[in-house]
Amino acid sequence: MAGDGEERVLQKMAAAFEPLAEWVVSGGVAMELRPFAQACAQVVDLIEASNSIATLNDMIELDIQHGSVRQLGSHTRNLLRVKRGLELIKTLFEEIIKLQGNSLRNAASVAYDKVMALHHGQDIRKAVDAAMHAVPPKSQLFELLNEDEDSAKVKMLRFIRACGPVIEYIEELFISTQLGIDW
Question: Residue 106: which residues within 8 A CB-CB, separation 6 or more?
Fold first, then answer.
């Protein structure tokens, strides 16, 4: 499976965040929006914003100036959602690495409870709980990712190391602008 030459999802995820992590660790001051948005390519809004806004700091400041920080669809609100998504994936990967056995249900539950449950109402939490029964076993997940367990864990660790500093940087942006992260 692993090593047959084709780039896989876990490889791409880790590789996308490693340069951002290096930048944060080296003491970078204002993260550029475009590289961040490209690392989070599924978030079209941030990619579009990167055409006219240079840094994450600038993006948040613009939303603050326009009074739109907490409005549905604002760049800042989308950034907070991306941060939570990264945290969820990071926490899930941490739980998978610790996991003994083949069931991912507990790992997924723990990750959701740590990162997202606080931000969801009771109806969504119930729906997520019901959906946990559809979580595939670990062996099936690795098969879907075209990875064996060892190669997947190596790439998960790379992602954990790479996105950790990025998550902390984004969190600090929200705290330093007194927006907080619990909304």
Answer: 95, 99
Contact yes or no for 73/45 (Cβ under 8 A): yes
User: What are residue 55's DSSP bridge partners?
Assistant: 32
Tokens standing for 156? 């998960």
Separation of alpha carbons 83 and 101, rounded Å: 29
The closest alpha carbon to 161, from 40, 55, 39, 15, belongs to 15
CATH of domain 9-176: 1.10.3520.10
What distance in Å separates the CA atoms of residue 137 and residue 48, rounded to the nearest whole number? 37
Sorted by sequence, the CB contacts under 8 Å of residue 172 that are 6+ apart come out as none
pLDDT tens-digit map of 57-115: 999 999 999 999 999 888 999 899 899 999 999 999 999 999 999 999 999 999 999 99
The answer to whether the CB of 90 falls within 8 A of the CB of 96 is no
Q: What is the pTM of this model?
A: 0.79
CA dihedral 65, 41, 78, 172 (to 10 degrees): -70
Place of tokens 């595939």: 136
Q: Strand pairing partners for 94?
A: none
Tokens 């700091």 -> residue: 57
